[in-house]
Design a protein that fits this description.
By secondary structure, the protein is mainly α. Helix content is 53%, strand content 5%. It has a two-stranded antiparallel ribbon with strand order 1-2. β1 and β2 form a beta hairpin. The model has no long low-confidence stretch (mean pLDDT 88).
Length: 110
């Protein structure tokens, strides 16, 4: 079955398709709409790779909080450039960053 790559940038494998992210706790959970093999894959990835261990959550929260803070300081017309820059490359926290940005968009904050 394999794991979900938390740093994947390919559209079909993007982590935000498999996971939901709690911006307050840093916890990663299977996406509420995920079913069947996709949900099992997400759960295996979270459990087997220790994605919710306290130290992992701490660094994930630290990254996303700093990114959101930086994003908020930019003029609205420059925010998409920063988002595109981060999302356009494989990196450790791209998945949780994408999920945080999606939450900010849904709330109308950005």
């Amino acid at each position: 079955m394999g794991y979900v790559d938390p740093g994947a940038v390919g559209e079909c494998e993007r982590p935000e398709r498999y996971f939901a992210y709690d911006m307050l706790t840093g916890e990663i959970v299977p996406h509420p709409n995920m079913k069947g093999d996709g949900k099992e894959r997400a759960e295996s990835t979270i459990n087997d790779l220790g994605l919710n261990q306290i130290d992992v959550r701490f660094y994930r929260l630290d990254w996303t909080r700093q990114f959101v803070e930086d994003l908020r300081t930019l003029p609205p017309q420059d925010r998409e450039a920063l988002i595109g820059f981060v999302f356009g490359r494989p990196m450790e926290y791209v998945g949780c960053t994408a999920m945080a940005v999606a939450q900010l968009r849904e709330s109308g904050e950005i």
